[in-house]
Amino acid sequence: MKMDTIFALATAAGKAGVAIIRISGPEAFAAAGALCGAVPSDSRVLRRLRSSDGAVLDEALVLGFGRGHSFTGEDVVELHLHGSPAVQKSVLAELSAQPGLRHAEAGEFTRRAMENGRLDLAQVEGLADLIDAETEAQRRQAMRVLSGALGDKAERWRTGLIRAAALVEATIDFADEDVPVDVYPEVSEILARVGADMRREADGVKIAERIRDGFEVAIVGAPNVGKSTLLNRLAGREAAITSEYAGTTRDVIEVRMDLGGLPVTLLDTAGLRETEDLVEGIGIERARLRAAAADLRIYMLLPDEKPDLDLASGDIVVAAKIDAFPRDGIGISSKTGEGIDRLVALVQDRLLERTQSVGVAMRERHRDALLRSLGYLEASEAQIRGGAEMPDLVAEELRSAIRAVDMLVGRVDVEDLLDEIFSSFCIGK
Question: Is 252 inside any structural domain?
Answer without folding.
Answer: yes
